[in-house]
Design goal:
about 375 residues; alpha/beta; five-stranded parallel β-sheet; two-stranded antiparallel sheet; globular; binds iron/sulfur cluster
Length: about 375
């Protein structure tokens, strides 16, 4: 019986959905709990995805809501509390009130391992809780550990301790090499990232065991476990794997990821939404706002209704200004040009790949 809780948050995006399917099938012994924090303003496809996952996995996804006793939907409740002040990337009260606080309330004081679907081809850290009782694990990455754990395990002051643990761990043919790397101090010519990658290149299982042994000397939740099945995980999953998992399972990829053609000045571009989250999310690119206006005019109109008293979703431009025909044409043209430049630079023939690069920008709680 596990001494800690294992939880997996479904954001409504493709990566966390694929993670739920992946973990449930690869590690059936883990007693996982699933949750989703509902802002009340997600796209219909997100609610559909949650239903599909429940059916496919035979699980119950706990729906968490900020201000659960309010008669209003969570986002509107807090918007009123903030005097109509729309959230922005600088003042992101929405993530705090609608995602982080409900999650921390759900967890309480229990020791928890939280599984996060940041992919192996992404260069961003997921949400790392400031609460000591919550530890994040990243199963899709070569390095499954969070940055704070790595910083402690590889710090110069712990070198002797880590060397002594490594003597009891099997690094295969890389035993001496692992010791050499561990012995080398981190400095400006040998960064923490380089040290981490060098160790991962020796033997991933050996490295994971090393970190797990180190955790025993800490207060992290996993220090209370005798074993952890993901120590053996050597998989690295990238974007294509995510689409494959969702398609093969029948759960499906949320429809808003589907690329749709548009014509502008004799050229054809493609747009879609690159991330899950609230339909009015301020992290949207201009072209995504155009997509929302043309594909979901009802939602665009609702987003417009929030813009009052000088508050706007996008910096320096209201949604009313954004849909003036000249402005929309300009956004599309600029977008097509940008895609062409990027495609030429990346030598990728697939314009459609490029929008997805943008999904990494934004909130690690909402877009996973
Ligand atoms: S999706 Fe965007 S608007 Fe919604 S809670 Fe997350 S950051 Fe805020």
């Amino acid at each position: 019986m596990s001494k800690i809780r294992h939880v997996l948050g479904i954001s409504g995006g493709k990566d966390s959905a694929a993670l739920a399917i992946y973990i449930k099938s690869k590690y059936p012994s883990l007693d996982l709990e699933f949750y989703s924090s509902d802002t009340g303003k997600e796209l219909d496809e997100t609610y559909q995805l949650i239903q599909n996952l429940e059916v496919y996995l035979g699980i119950k996804i706990n729906i968490l809501k900020g201000a659960e006793n309010s008669s209003e939907v969570p986002f509107d409740h807090f918007l009123k509390m903030y005097g109509g002040y729309l959230p922005s990337s600088n003042v992101r009260w929405c993530t705090k009130k609608l995602k982080l606080e409900p999650f921390e309330k759900y967890v309480g004081t229990d020791d928890v391992v939280s599984y996060v679907g940041i992919r192996g081809d992404e260069d961003r850290e997921g949400y790392i809780s400031t609460k000591k009782n919550i530890q994040s694990i990243f199963p899709f990455r070569k390095n499954i550990w969070s940055e704070d754990v790595i910083a402690k395990a590889l710090s110069n002051q712990n070198i002797e301790q880590i060397i002594s643990y490594s003597k009891n761990i099997d690094f295969g043919k890389y035993q001496d090499k692992a010791t050499q790397i561990i012995s080398k101090k981190i400095d400006t010519s040998f960064t923490q990232k380089q040290k981490l990658n060098a160790l991962l290149d020796t033997d991933i299982k050996g490295f994971n065991q090393l970190v797990f042994d180190f955790l025993k000397t800490t207060e992290y939740p996993l220090s209370k476990e005798d074993s952890f099945p993901l120590l053996d995980n050597e998989d690295v999953l990238v974007r294509d794997d995510i689409f494959r998992i969702l398609e093969e399972s029948g759960v499906g990829v949320p429809a808003y990821y589907n690329k749709i053609d548009f014509d502008i000045n004799g050229k054809t571009g493609q747009y879609s939404r690159s991330r899950s989250g609230c339909f009015f999310c301020f992290y949207q690119q201009k072209i995504e706002w155009v997509w929302l206006y043309e594909q979901h005019p009802d939602l665009y109109k609702k987003a417009m209704e929030y813009e009052k008293d000088g508050y706007t979703w996008a910096q320096g431009e209201s949604l009313e200004e954004l849909i003036q025909p000249k402005r929309m044409a300009q956004i599309k043209e600029e977008y097509v040009k940008r895609m062409e430049r990027k495609a030429a630079k990346n030598k990728s023939p697939y314009l459609i790949d490029i929008l997805d690069e943008e999904e990494g920008i934004g909130c690690a709680s909402c877009f996973v």
